[in-house]
Design goal:
Layout: E1 2-5, H1 10-20, E2 25-28, H2 45-60, E3 64-73, H3 93-103, E4 111-122, E5 125-137, E6 153-155, H4 167-173, H5 175-192
Parallel strand pairs: 1-2, 1-3
Antiparallel strand pairs: 3-4, 4-5, 5-6
Helix pairs in contact: 1-5
C-alpha cells in the first residue's frame, strides 16, 4: 500500500519507511512534485498534523499521513513545542539547538520530551496517533546521527543521545515509532472488520 507522508524532510520520510518496513511504500511531497507551501498555523501538534494530512489527501486522493513532531521542554514552559522546526530560523537545527541550549544555560531541570502526533486522513476523515519519549537535555551536542534536536536529547534509561544511537536502535523506541505502531494497529483492526 502506498502512503503519502506530508513532508519534504527526507530524514523523516526515511525514518518512517524504516519503521514501517515493507508494509508500505512511503512517498513524500517531493515524490509527487507537490511544492505548495502548507501553512501550519494550528495551535497544537494535532491541528498541524491535520492541516498537513488533509491538504495532501485533498490534493492527491491518496491516504495521507501528517506528522507533527517536536521537543517540549519543561523549564521553557513547553517551548520550542509546535515551533520546534523553526525555533531560531526555518529548519536550521544548528541554530535551533543553540537557542535552546542558551535558554537552558544554568537551568537545573533539564526534563524534556519528544512528541509525535500523526494524523491519518482518508475518505473517512481523520484519525490521530501519538507517541512520546521522555528524557533530559544535555548542555552540548553529542553524536552525528539522527536529525533535529537528537544531539542534545538523552532518553530516560539511556546514556546515549538519539544522535549517538544507531538508527535501528532509536527507531525501536522513538516517539515516531510509538505513534506509527498505534497507526499500524488501527489499520490492522480496520482490515479485520
Amino acid at each position: 500500500m502506498e502512503l503519502l507522508v506530508a513532508t519534504h524532510n527526507i530524514h523523516k520520510k526515511e525514518e518512517i519507511q524504516q519503521i514501517l518496513s515493507d508494509s508500505f511504500v512511503v512517498k513524500s511531497l517531493t515524490d509527487y512534485n507537490i511544492h505548495d507551501e502548507i501553512v501550519e498555523d494550528g495551535d497544537s501538534f494535532h491541528a498541524n498534523a491535520l492541516i498537513k494530512a488533509k491538504f495532501c489527501f485533498e490534493k492527491t486522493g491518496i491516504p495521507s499521513l501528517g506528522d507533527d513532531s517536536g521537543l517540549v521542554v519543561e523549564s521553557l514552559d513547553g517551548r520550542p513545542g509546535i515551533f520546534s522546526a523553526r525555533y531560531a530560523g526555518d529548519h536550521d537545527f544548528a541554530k535551533n539547538i543553540e537557542k535552546v541550549l542558551s535558554e537552558m544555560e544554568n537551568v537545573e531541570n533539564r526534563k524534556a520530551y519528544f512528541i509525535t502526533v500523526l494524523c491519518y486522513y482518508d475518505e473517512n476523515g481523520a484519525q490521530y496517533f501519538e507517541g512520546r519519549v521522555h528524557g533530559n537535555l544535555l548542555t552540548e551536542n553529542k553524536g552525528q546521527k539522527g536529525f533535529g534536536y537528537d544531539p542534545i536529547f538523552v532518553p530516560e534509561g539511556y546514556e546515549l543521545t538519539f544522535a549517538e544511537m544507531n538508527p535501528e536502535d532509536k527507531n525501536q523506541m522513538s516517539h515516531r515509532k510509538q505513534a506509527l505502531d498505534l497507526f499500524l494497529k488501527f489499520l490492522k483492526l480496520k482490515e479485520d472488520l
